Amino acid sequence: VSSAKLARFAARAGLSGTEFLAGIPGTFGGALAMNAGAWGKNTWSLVQSIETLNQRGQRYHRQITDYEINYRSVKGPKNEWFVAATLQLTSSSVEESFAKIKSLLKKRNETQPIGLPSCGSVFRNPQGDYAARLIEQAGWKGKGKGGVYVSEKHANFIINHTATTAADIESLIEQIRTSVKQKYGIHLIPEVFMVGEFIEKQT
């Protein structure tokens, strides 16, 4: 189930709490896996319990206490995947919930490069600061290599202007991390999940 579909489904049912998910790309399972969030809200603040599945097809009912939940980070039982979740939402009018969704999507469209090929926000915000501010101050806004570059609208987005390779995007990510580390002493942690072989293992 896509995060956006869940937000609309809840709104039609007169339930509030998931509106922030309307603009988050991907599935709700992915949102659970990384504690996705926006506008000061996060996925696991809604969760009451979880159902998971392991490699042998066994299902488990898990509680929040089975997981270590942090900003854009979720750690729990290994080799289990989310298949269902019970959420705690609040009553609201359909009109009010859809108005919130519309307002948040408008704000996202005004501040982020919606409609251009990207993987969303690349880095987690360091405590007390914003990754986009650090990247912009380090001189990366609008810059890149070949068909991949840092968005001029929001510096925490990398745009794949032409069908470039994952290696090109990863290389730009590492250049940005190195630059910000040298200038500010801050080690930016990727928010995106890298699958397969890559330059430096995510920490």
UniProtKB/TrEMBL annotation:
UniProt-annotated location(s): Cytoplasm
Keywords: Cell cycle, Cell division, Cell shape, Cell wall biogenesis/degradation, Cytoplasm, FAD, Flavoprotein, NADP, Oxidoreductase, Peptidoglycan synthesis
This protein's pathway: Cell wall biogenesis; peptidoglycan biosynthesis
Annotated GO MF terms: UDP-N-acetylmuramate dehydrogenase activity
Cofactor: FAD
Entry-linked Pfam families: FAD_binding_4, MurB_C
Positions of the UDP-N-acetylenolpyruvoylglucosamine reductase C-terminal domain: 99-194
Residues covered by the FAD linked oxidase N-terminal domain: 4-58
Cited Gene3D superfamilies: 3.30.465.10, UDP-N-acetylenolpyruvoylglucosamine reductase, C-terminal domain
EC top class named in words: oxidoreductase
Catalytic activities: UDP-N-acetyl-alpha-D-muramate + NADP(+) = UDP-N-acetyl-3-O-(1-carboxyvinyl)-alpha-D-glucosamine + NADPH + H(+)
InterPro entries: FAD-bd_PCMH-like_sf (IPR036318), FAD-bd_PCMH_sub2 (IPR016169), MurB (IPR003170), MurB_C (IPR011601), MurB_C_sf (IPR036635), Oxid_FAD_bind_N (IPR006094)
Catalytic activity, EC: 1.3.1.98
Keyword Aminoacyl-tRNA synthetase: no
Function description: Cell wall formation.
HAMAP family referenced in this protein's UniProt entry, alphabetically: MurB
Family membership: Belongs to the MurB family.
Name of the protein in its database record: UDP-N-acetylmuramate dehydrogenase
Phylogenetic classification of the source organism: Bacteria, Pseudomonadati, Pseudomonadota, Gammaproteobacteria, Thiotrichales
